[in-house]
Write a structure and sequence with these properties.
The protein is an all-alpha fold and about 400 residues long. It is built from 15 helices and four strands. It has a domain of about 240 residues. The longest helix has 27 residues.
Length: about 400
């Protein structure tokens, strides 16, 4: 790639001021392990050992919010089943972590402990290969992607959209949750997969491993953000916005929504699978509760709170809502659901563009009114695409 092309790509993704803000934000997040390691215990900026995996978990949620915003905020496809892709990536990594336990488990068997407890005699065929990290990492991306392709093919080919699509994705989540609860499926049933020991021969309990997982989650979030930003600022992104605002008129211009929706839907699922794979080693468990329909609804709330159609708003919403959840469930556990409902209703009524919409509107008023045309919330007319066919 030529230097001119790189400069053009960089300027397309962000302005210099936005690049600076992005660098500062990720720089602050990258400094968190240093606060944990270098700042003395008891100091104001010192973070406890338990805080690092918690923040790493929030970063994984941020990546899921990015994936959700890509299909909902920019394509207009409201999914209430993204927890499926997140959980599948998590189960793939959990299977690898279970295989690495080996004879160090409670029953000193090559089989995972839950299989010994359930009197399984041999390893199921679909567990083979998960003793290798590379295979498990590929499955964490391929399995959600393959499910997205199959599901999306039939759904988008049948032109199912709107509330009907949302209901079908919610039903998919619920059906898979019921399946995973069964002990005879070979995924740990109600208890799921847990008691992990090592990742790539590094003990998960070691602080250095936790720091590495945190930084890996931050890097994945950064790469995912740049990838999504590249998609939405390209010609593909203009087609997605037009599909969101006037799908029928886009079809009359000669564009087939099926291929565009399926591509973005699959990419979103792969990002969720990556987030799930990074999530499991940091929390130490994966079970069917991750497939609960309420989890998929919460993902949509993160994006709505942060600002739909902005990418960075989804990340902000995920960090903010989960930070509130972590604090409220510890201090006032009975109030969390009321607070979540009030937050969603308040944002819907008073901040329809989310928190990011506040900053975008202020920037347009202060800097230059003509920048309003660049805001992602502005619709793209189908006629504008006619010249690109």
């Amino acid at each position: 790639m030529s230097t001119a092309r790189i400069k053009e790509l960089v300027s397309t993704l962000h302005s210099p001021r936005q690049w600076l803000a992005l660098a500062v934000g990720f720089g602050v997040l990258a400094s968190v392990p240093a606060l944990n390691r270098l700042v003395p215990v008891g100091a104001a900026l010192h973070l406890s050992d338990s805080m690092l995996p918690l923040l790493g978990k929030f970063l994984c949620y941020g990546l899921v919010a990015l994936a959700m915003d890509l299909v909902w905020g920019y394509t207009g496809v409201l999914s209430l089943g993204h927890a499926v892709f997140f959980a599948l990536g998590g189960y793939a990594m959990g299977m690898y972590l279970m295989r690495t336990i080996g004879t160090a488990g409670v029953y000193r068997s090559e089989l995972p402990d839950f299989m010994v407890f359930l009197d399984w005699k041999e390893l199921p065929w679909y567990w083979h290969g998960f003793q290798h990290f590379g295979f498990a990492a590929c499955m964490a991306l391929l399995v959600p992607g393959l499910l997205a392709v199959v599901f999306g093919f039939f759904a988008f080919r049948s032109r199912i959209r709107g509330v009907y699509f949302s209901i079908i994705t919610q039903a998919l989540t619920y059906a898979l949750m019921l399946l995973m609860f069964r002990n005879d499926t070979g995924f740990g049933g109600n208890n799921g997969l847990t008691d992990f020991k090592r990742l790539l021969d590094y003990p998960l309990a070691e602080q250095s491993t936790k720091q590495a997982l945190y930084l890996a989650s931050l890097l994945a979030l950064l790469v995912g953000y740049l990838l999504c930003r590249y998609v939405v600022t390209s010609k593909l992104g203009r087609v997605l916005l037009a599909l969101r605002d006037a799908e029928s008129r886009v079809m009359f211009c000669g564009y087939d929504p099926f291929h565009y929706k399926l591509l973005v839907w699959t990419l979103s699922a792969i990002l969720c699978g990556l987030a799930g794979a990074l999530y499991v080693p940091q929390v130490g468990i994966i079970n069917p509760s991750e497939l609960a329909p309420s989890n998929s609804i919460e993902i949509a709330i993160w994006v709505a709170v942060g600002g739909r159609g902005t990418l960075v708003g989804g990340v902000i919403g995920a960090l903010l809502v989960n930070g509130m959840k972590s604090w409220l469930t510890g201090a006032y556990p009975e109030l969390w659901l009321y607070a979540l409902g009030a937050l969603f209703v308040g944002v819907t009524l008073f901040l329809p563009k989310g928190l990011a919409g506040l900053f975008s509107a202020r920037r347009v008023r202060v800097v230059a009114p003509e920048l309003a045309a660049e805001l992602p919330a502005e619709p793209v007319r189908a006629e504008d695409l006619a010249g690109e066919t």
